[in-house]
Structures are given as C-alpha cells and as structure tokens.
C-alpha cells in the first residue's frame, strides 16, 4: 500500500481525507499549517524525506477570498509559491502531487459546464493566486502533477454554508439568499474518496497527469441549495427568499456560473461524484450534529 502525505490537514477537506485514508487502510500522515509551512523549501524537503510519501495531497491554501483582494502577495505565497515548492520537492523524491484548486480560476460567465481545458480568466486575486499554483504544479511536475478543481465545499469539520444556514434557520423568520450564482455543492467526504481513487490511479499509471474537476453532479443556486437545507431540517422552504448578488456586495467578485464538467474522470476510468442532492441528504445528519454541538459548546 502506498504512503500518503496530506498538507493542510487541519482544514475541512484535509480532515475528511485523512479519515478516508484511515478507513481504507492507507498509511497516511497529516501536517497542518503549524506543522509544515509549505512555502519553506527546506521544511518541505525535510518532510518528504521523513515520511517518504508516494502521494502528496496539498490541501493547504489561503481561502479568505475577500481578504486576498487587499493581501494578494500573502495569498500568492500560500496558493502559488507553496505548490511550486511542493512540486519541486516531489520532483526530487519521485512522489505524485495532487493540488487542490478552485472554480475561481474561471471568469464565471459561461452558460454550460466548464471543461477541464476551458480557457481560464480569474476575475479576482484569489483566483489569480490559485491559478498560479496550478501552473506551478503542472509546469514543474508534468509527469506526476495533478490539479483537482473543486467548489462550494461543505463538511462537518469546519465552518461552511450548510452549517451557517442550519444556524440561521433557528434564529431568522426568513432568509434572503442569492439566486443568480450557480454551482455544485460538494461534500468534502465525497471529494476525499475521489482523491483517494485518483491517487491510486496515478500510481497505477491509469490516470493521466493534468486537470480534473472534483465537484458533485447537477447544479443549483445558493437559493436552491438553501431551500434543500431547509427541507432536510423539516423547515418551510418558502421562508427562503430569492435575491441577487447586488444585495450582498463584497470586496471580491463571485463567479455567476461555477458549474464544472467531469470528462477527465471518465477518461481515467474513475466514476465522477454523485448528484449534490444525494450527497447532501447523506451528509446532513453529521452536519446537523456538528452544528448543534458547536452551538452548545461555543467552539
């Protein structure tokens, strides 16, 4: 069995990935931000020498989208320089590198799902820095570099849209939610399983290096997503009211259309993720428990 190293393991996806690897009997080490600064070449090389992974999955990222607008150089260090440092170390060690990226590398003005090879064109600093990380991995490690773009992530192991809506349902009579941004809600536990399958296929030589889109099937708006959350709560979905993005002006522009295509998985013989509604239904009890525990403990 292969050895795995997960950077950024303290985050929502990193936690679920480590749990999935453990459940499948894969030896794995997780290094959170305190344990490894991915922008430090000496520290990264030392980590790879110490753990000798066959697969490195980089879940470390600057994810504060709005803050990136005023702190782009800091975001670029984590999202652009860090992946390049990891790719260089993997080139030396012979490891496969899986870099997690984002729908924000696209302009968000399409009307049909973005293919893996569709032209990029980020509209904000966050997307620019993540695109820099993609290019660093693919240029530095062309034979063993993989990029998995994802979007609209939620899970039990961190703050996210689903848990926020669960909380707000109990304190708000009605909620105004934008209906002019479309995407694919994606459960981190589902994505974790997909990453494990990709890593194994990479080692077996059955998945070509390059770009993959790790999002759930189907699509919805934030408004539609919230109504489904209310339905699962047993609350009246009519309490969720549609509005548009102009009602929530933020420093960073949000993509109006973040739906991603999944053809690369089929070419690799890997089944893409299931429909977002099915995933949310299965995930919901765990999310509800996590949010209620947080409300009780305040942590």
UniProtKB/TrEMBL annotation:
<protein>
    <recommendedName>
        <fullName>dTDP-4-dehydrorhamnose reductase</fullName>
        <ecNumber>1.1.1.133</ecNumber>
    </recommendedName>
</protein>
<dbReference type="InterPro" id="IPR036291">
    <property type="entry name" value="NAD(P)-bd_dom_sf"/>
</dbReference>
<dbReference type="GO" id="GO:0008831">
    <property type="term" value="F:dTDP-4-dehydrorhamnose reductase activity"/>
</dbReference>
<keyword id="KW-0521">NADP</keyword>
<dbReference type="Pfam" id="PF04321">
    <property type="entry name" value="RmlD_sub_bind"/>
</dbReference>
<keyword id="KW-0560">Oxidoreductase</keyword>
<dbReference type="InterPro" id="IPR005913">
    <property type="entry name" value="dTDP_dehydrorham_reduct"/>
</dbReference>
<dbReference type="GO" id="GO:0019305">
    <property type="term" value="P:dTDP-rhamnose biosynthetic process"/>
</dbReference>
<comment type="similarity">
    <text>Belongs to the dTDP-4-dehydrorhamnose reductase family.</text>
</comment>
<comment type="pathway">
    <text>Carbohydrate biosynthesis; dTDP-L-rhamnose biosynthesis.</text>
</comment>
<dbReference type="InterPro" id="IPR029903">
    <property type="entry name" value="RmlD-like-bd"/>
</dbReference>
<comment type="function">
    <text>Catalyzes the reduction of dTDP-6-deoxy-L-lyxo-4-hexulose to yield dTDP-L-rhamnose.</text>
</comment>
<feature type="domain" description="RmlD-like substrate binding">
    <location>
        <begin position="5"/>
        <end position="286"/>
    </location>
</feature>
<dbReference type="GO" id="GO:0005829">
    <property type="term" value="C:cytosol"/>
</dbReference>
